[in-house]
Every structure is written in structure tokens, then in C-alpha cells.
Amino acid sequence: MLRITRYRYNNVPYDSNGKYYYIADGDFVWNPGWQPTQTKLDSYECRHGIGYTRFTSSKNGLSAELLNFVPLSDTCEVNCLTVRNTTDSAKSFKVYSYVEFCLWNALDDMTNYQRNLSTGEVEVIGSTIYHKTEYRERRNHYSYFSVNEKAAAFDTSRDAFIGTYRPASNPAAIENGGCTNSVASGWYPIAAHELDVTLEAGAEKTFVFVLGYAENPVDQKWEAPNVINKAPAKALLAKYQTKEDVDRALTELKDYWTNLLSGYVVNSADEKVNRMVNIWNQYQCMVTFNMSRSTSYYESGIGRGMGFRDSNQDLLGFVHLIPEKARERIIDIASTQFPDGSAYHQYQPLTKRGNSDIGSGFNDDPLWLIAGASAYIKETGDFSILDEMVPFDNDESTKVPLFEHLTRSFDYIVSHKGPHSLPLIGRADWNDCLNLNCFSDTPGESFQTSGPSEGPVAESVFIAGMFVKYGEEYRQLCLHRGLTEKAEEAEKEVKAMYDAVLTAGWDGEWFVRAYDANGDIIGSHKCEEGKIFIEPQGFCVLAGIGVKEGKAQQALASVEKYLDTKYGIMILQPCYTHYYLNLGEISSYPPGYKENGGIFCHNNPWVSIAETVCGHGDRAFEIYKKTCPAYIEDISEIHCTEPYVYSQMVAGKDAAFFGQGKNSWLTGTAAWTFVNISQYILGIQPDYKGLKIDPCVPAQFGDYTIVRKFRGATYNVTIQNPDKMQKGIRELTVNGRSVEGNIVPFEEGVKEYNVVAKM
Length: 759
Ligand code: BGC
Ligand code: NOJ
Description:
The protein is an alpha+beta fold. The chain contains 19 helices and 39 strands. The strands form 11 sheets. An 8-stranded antiparallel β-sheet has the order 4-5-6-7-14-11-10-9, covered by helices on one side. A hairpin with a 2-residue loop joins strand 2 (20-25) and strand 3 (28-30). Helix 10 packs across helix 11 (402-414) and helix 17 runs antiparallel to helix 19 (669-681). It starts with a strand and ends with a strand. The mean pLDDT is 97. The structure holds beta-D-glucopyranose (BGC) and 1-deoxynojirimycin. Residues 432-433, 448, 585, 594-595 line the site of beta-D-glucopyranose.
């Protein structure tokens, strides 16, 4: 994992080292973004848009606007700073910029000082500072920081700019009245510009700063001995020289998002639903597409790559936005599957190879591939993906059609069952922390990789629920390919699993969670702690298990009774109060956190979807609202994470900080909440034959419309609910014609569908 600028791991609460702009104006030194001087400002505002952030602030008769974004098609970040003199006389002041370079490899940068303090190198040409550490040897990439104005001076040595023993809030260069044109050699290379500004009364000036990254072909690294080839940097910088250039790039970025997000637009009486569905939830889904679990405030970016299960689930949230990318992603993921249907738990996005440090053995993984592939086909109608030739473990000689991969996924579960005819859990299922074959008693040992990856006894009711859901998807794909015999076999297997869940997987009031390596029950009233878990209640019911038998409804009532809180549904109760060797990481967390009784936002939508399966629109929506950022913005002091972003976890009622969110942004919660609200509550579900209209809403939700782009056509859907129903479409008309059932059949060539559905 490479970094351009340095991130100080474990640096909270200092939380310093951004890209800083200082304004030195008489007695005041301040920052448009407040950090790092923390000078009290006369006004301050920070706005996050889709792909950009804008800071607006003022101090002592100067106002500043700082706009930050990464343009759509260039490898750089633009920081556009406009300063205005709001007084009625002229003002002279200085603007300083500051970024600190990382010596590329993030892990090496923070550990290998004996070497790294001697490798730093820069070049300075005009107002562009090039960071070229290690370029002399094996790297053919460099970064640079530039401004569109002549700088009065610069610094590239941190010691020169900040000064020794000083913090970034009080740089020596600023105190001494200017930069010293220092050229870094070893130690800590930075880039700082000093700009002299004089503004007449009311005048303003814009500086365009660009932090860029460039690569050269290996044979074109140099323009002279030890002088880097700057052609790509110069070409890029030429595009960002004026405010108009910046405006153009920002407009392009905004247009991109507006267009991307136009594929699902709801207009209901509930402004928060509209805001979350139309903007932020979909945006977060795209962030998980781009970043997976690689870098955020909570993920260091130097550990895991892409998760097999995570990536398939993320796909459920972005497949309608970027279907071609989803297709590519499915092929990449399937290429890391093993011939027996199991899978590398993770793979590296750049090499696209499975990660052997973690290996395989997470027995839910195979089924998520069916989930991803079937969602893609339902969205696009592109069955041809099933014929795509895809290798196992990236070995080109093993290529088979993707459909065969799905068959191996399905067969893996069928051939890996335990004593109760339930699926073997392996290292873990969706809940990475339920490690039933691990038995780790050594501090620091990874729960994910220690112990045997397989055990012949420990079983998962959750995987059983998944099998019923995605086994049925697989059966439908078989039918589509004319494989009736295979479809019948699949039906039999799914039926057998359904029955196993209702017998060995039923505890009397709710679904059991698992059986451990000794065959002892987990998630049952017979257990002392961890009597009830959310996952099997959500997933078994959404798969339809026990609905006709009345058990599904009973399981959901138990969720409400034992797991629900005002901030969402907890993952289990009662929490584990001590470490259990037979359970693993789940019991390593203090009660109320993470998998030990936190409100794991990822599986709250499963329960909400399950409620829609049972026709409970009021309850489904109530669950939706509890973890939905827009509805909890009023309790931001408790919730703590961004009021427009889903978190992985909110502390459960047993935790000291009940209601506090953690791990925002990179979580499967984004995809699943979007699936829940867009498909199950608002009810627009892609299906093989067309768009299914199947809303399940609160009785008081009112009429609403949705514009949905689907397979190149636009669907203008109006849902009317005159009798305040929670579920069920009574009448469906498409382009003025009445249609049987609730599927709007897709017809090649029809570009617009005006749909009215009456509940
Ligand atoms: C976390 C899980 C995560 C796992 C894998 C555990 O420490 O609690 O949420 O899935 O690590 O990285
Ligand atoms: C986060 C992981 O990324 C995901 O794969 C897992 O399912 C959940 N934690 C629950 O353990």
C-alpha cells in the first residue's frame, strides 16, 4: 500500500498532518480549515458534497474559501484557495502551504527509520516541488505539489519549515517571516510554498494548488542524469492553472455524480428517506466499491485487501450504478475461487490474486458469489456472464464457465454438512468472530487464521439460511439454462436444508445460531450467555424459512423482545462476559462492542427485510430508521460518526457508550441498507424478467414516485396507497395498460415505462 502524504498511525487525539494552508496576517496566523493552529475564527463552515469538500472561514477582515477534490480523470488532488479582503483598505499578508510526504510504502515509512532517514530526495522547479525518494532506484513514480503562482520562497525540509521541537501549529518559517528555500536531503521531505499577497479593498485572489502523482515508463525515467522526467506532471499541471480550470473540473465531477445517482430517485413525503436514498446511501455504496475495506479512519490500508464476501455484498449496493464494473468485479472474485468451491477469503485488488496469508475456510464465502452473480443478472439481464470463462485460483489452465463456479459454490455447502445436516462453519461464517474451530489461547494470535480451518462438527444455521436463499437463486439460474435435472436436485437440497433449519435450527422461540466443535448449541435459551443472535433470525426469515409455519413471525417477535434498542438491534444477547475458548474472538470484546452485543448495522437491514417478507411495513421502516444516519443527526453528540454515513457498529446497551457509532464508511451496511430501502421497503426489485414492484411501507407513508433506470430504459413509477396498506399491489398499469401480477416485463426497445401501482 503506497501513500503520497504521511499518515501518522495511532495519532489520535492529535489527529494532525493534513494538507495545511496558513494565512499569516499581521498578528494572526490562521488556517481556512482551522487545523493546525486552531486560531479562533470569526466564521467557519465545512461542507461535504459528493466528491468534494469546501471550507469557508474568515478572520480579521480576510475571508477564505478552500475547495478540495480529486478530479474525475487525473491522478491529483486540487486544493483551490480563494482569499478575499473584506475591509475597506488594502491588505498585505502571506499564504503558506504545507504537505508532508510519505516515503511511499506506508508500513516501511513508519518502521524503517535506520534507512529512510537517509533516502529522502526532492527537486524544485519554479513553484513545483517534486518528491522523488527512491526514484533513483526501483521506483518509476513520483509525486509533486504545485501552485499556479510564483512563490516568494519554498521549503522542502520539515526541520527547516516547522523547526525542530516545534509543532505544525507553530512553524518556524512563519514565525521568522518566510521560507528558506531548503532542499531536503534525507530526513523528512515536505512541500511548502510561501506566497506574498496584497489585496486592494474588496479584492480577491485564487490560488490553485495541485498535489499530483505521476508514473513514467521505465525507459523514460530521466530527462538528464538524476533529473526526473517531468513530462507527465507538466501535462497535468497545465490543465489546472486557473479558477476556470478548477470550476470546469468540479462541474465535470458534479455532473458525473448527478448522472450516476439518477438511476434511482425517490420522491416521497419523507425528506430524510429522499436524502439518504438519492444521495448519501448510494454515494457510500460507491465508496465501498472504490475502497472496499482498504483505507479509512478505521482501516489502516496496510492490512486486508478485498474480501470475498465483502466484495460480493458491496456489489449488491452498486450494481445498478456501474453494472460493467460489477461484471468485472464478479469475474475477479470468481477467479480466486478454488476448484472445490471454497475460496480465498481475501484477494489483492492490484494483482487480483488470492491472499494466502489468510487462505480459505470461511464457509459462507462460496454462497456470496451466487448472491453477487444473480444480483448482476437480475439488474442487467446479461446471462452471458454465466458463460464467461473463469479460472480457479487464477490458474488460466483451469478455466470453466462462471456458471460452473456457482455450481461448485452450491456443491461445496451440500458436501460440507455436519451432524445436524447443517452447513459446517469452517473458520467462521459472516460473523468473523464466531471461531468455533479455533481454540486460541495465545495472546496476539489471529483468530482468523489459527487453529484448523475445518472441523467435522461445528455447524452454522446462518449459512443454512443463506443456502436456502441463494440455493433458490441457483435453482432459477439452472432452469434458465435448461438444466431441469440440476434444478430439481437443487430444489431437493434446498428443501432438505429448510427442514434441517426448522428442526435442529429451531429453539422454540427463535432460530439457533450454531453448533460448536463439541456439538453444543450456540444461540439457544439453553446457553448461559449468547442465547439469541440476530443473524439467523434475519437471514432465515428473509430466505422465507418458517413463514408459512408461523415460526418466522415468532423469531422476529423475539428479536424485538430481546435484541431491540432505541439505537438499533443488537447482534446478540446476553453478551459474553468472559472469554470462551470454544467461541473465539466474539467473546474477546467487552460486552456491547462489535460482534459481542454491539448493534452491528450490517445485519439490521436483514431483519428489516425479513419484516417486509412477513408484510410488516411499519416495523420494517422503524428498524430502517433506527440506524439511518439522517434520522439520528439530532443525537450526533451520542452517535459521534458522520450524520450522513453508515457505521459498521453502534455500541450496544451493555457498553459504556451505548449509541456511539464506530467504523463509518467502509462497511457492508451501505449495500444492505440500500438493498433494504430501495428494493424491499420502497419496493423496486430487479428480477430476471423485469422490474418487480413490491413495496412494503408504513401505513402512513403516503404516495410516492421513483425514477429508476434499468437496462437502458427509464421507469417512472408511481405508488399509490389510498387505503394505507403495508404491503401488496392491487393494480398495476404500465404505459396505460393493465398488467397481471407485480412484474413490469422488460421489453427490448421500449425506452420509457410509466408505471402506476396501486396498493
Ligand atoms: C472484527 C470483524 C472483522 C474481522 C476481520 C475482527 O477483529 O471484529 O468485524 O470482520 O476482524 O478483519
Ligand atoms: C467485518 C468484515 O469485513 C465482514 O467480512 C464480516 O462479515 C463482519 N465484520 C462481521 O464479522
